[in-house]
Amino acid sequence: MDCLFCKIVNGDIPATVLYEDDDVIAFEDIMPQAPTHFLVIPKRHISTLNDLTDDDAPMVGKLQITAAKIAKQKGISDAGYRVAMNCNEMGGQTVYHIHMHVLGGRAMTWPPG
Ligand code: AMP
Ligand code: ZN
């Protein structure tokens, strides 16, 4: 599978890993858009949010709970942070393995551009 994030999961491409278990892995974004910017992804390849099924509900919940735990560890929870998942071209998706962005350490604007 020629997928960048699958290569990170497999250890073929290095990443600064923040958390890892059997289902999910979290790592620092290589081009941070905020003082804190990390990604939480499922280890199993899923191309877009459109490909999720009902069976994926526990995994999707785990992505969010992992994001919140790491945000707390990084000390951005109380001030606040942004969680985003981009879907397909108009959503701004560039890597086609679903991932949750977590951005913090600066004030976010709404709506996003
Ligand atoms: P998206 O545009 O929502 O698909 O987000 C893809 C994200 O992956 C971007 O924020 C990139 O900076 C990030 N990214 C791309 N390559 C890597 C990499 N090798 N390690 C960590 N993050 C990456
Ligand atoms: Zn993948």
Written account of the structure:
The chain is α+β, with helices and mostly antiparallel strands. It has one domain: HIT-like (HIT family, subunit A, 2-Layer Sandwich). Helix content is 26%, strand content 22%. It has three helices and five strands. It has helices spanning 4-10, 57-74, 88-91, and strands at 17-20, 24-28, 36-42, 81-84, 100-104. It has a five-stranded antiparallel β-sheet with strand order 1-2-3-5-4, with helices on one face. A hairpin with a 7-residue loop joins strand 2 (24-28) and strand 3 (36-42). The protein is globular, with a radius of gyration of 14 Å. It starts with a helix and ends in a 9-residue tail after the last strand. 22% of the residues are buried. The model has no long low-confidence stretch (mean pLDDT 97). Adenosine monophosphate binds at residues 4, 13, 15, 27, 29-31, 86, 92-95. Pfam families: DcpS_C. InterPro entries: Histidine_triad_CS (IPR019808), Histidine_triad_HIT (IPR001310), HIT-like (IPR011146), HIT-like_sf (IPR036265). Keywords: Hydrolase. One of its GO terms (molecular function) is hydrolase activity. A motif (Histidine triad motif) lies at residues 97-101.
* Count of distinct strands: 5
Going by CATH, the architecture would be 2-Layer Sandwich
CATH domain class name: Alpha Beta
End-to-end separation in angstroms reads 32 Å
Helix and strand composition category: alpha+beta
Taken from the alpha-carbon principal axes, the silhouette is: globular
- Unreliable segments (pLDDT under 50, ≥5 consecutive)? none
**Largest β-sheet summary:** 5 strands, antiparallel
CATH superfamily: HIT-like
The CATH topology is HIT family, subunit A
* Total domain units: 1
List all distinct small molecules, including ions and cofactors, that are bound in this structure. Answer: adenosine monophosphate, zinc ion
What would the average pLDDT be, to the nearest integer?
97
How much helical structure, as a percent, in the residues?
25-40%
